[in-house]
Design goal:
4 helices; SAM-dependent_MTases_sf; T1MK-like_N_sf; flat
């Protein structure tokens, strides 16, 4: 009896869910793609000693990347937790400092820089217009002096 495509997909997805237990989806995706790549290259270059060595090195690199990503995520989670735990210890002055100095002043600085750039661009365009007008005036005066 032949298995239907939908049954096959359901079975494969269930197997994937079993393998993924406790692993973040983004990490699992990278792991599965790495495995599929390794399987493809393995089948294509079966028996070639150089290719086998390259595959082993690629696997080591994929594993090292996955380990580094996991460590990064764990470190980020630990940092987020430490910051969260620090919030109740902040004084009113600390909160004002964070809001005013860090957020408000950064926004103000950004707005000032944007305004300076806008005014500078406007002045540059005006100078260009004036120079273009002066050039035309000089050309008209030359023509009049040649004809007059």
């Amino acid at each position: 009896m032949a298995i239907k495509k939908t049954e096959l997909y359901s079975s494969l997805l269930a197997s994937c869910d079993e393998l993924r237990v406790g692993m973040d989806v983004s990490q699992y995706k990278d792991y599965v793609l790495s495995m599929l790549f390794m399987k493809y290259v393995s089948d294509k270059y079966k028996g070639d000693p150089y290719e086998v060595a390259v595959l082993k090195q690629a696997k080591k690199l994929f594993d090292a990347e996955a380990t580094a990503e996991k460590a990064l995520k764990e470190a980020q989670d630990a940092l987020d937790l430490a910051v969260f735990k620090q919030y109740p210890k902040l004084s009113i002055d600390d909160i004002k400092s964070l809001i005013v100095e860090d957020t408000w002043l950064a926004t103000l600085e950004s707005n000032i820089v944007a305004e300076i750039e806008r005014v500078t661009q406007k002045l540059a365009n005006r100078v260009k217009e004036l120079l273009t007008g002066k050039t035309r005036l000089v050309q008209l005066l030359k023509k009049e002096s040649q004809h007059g």
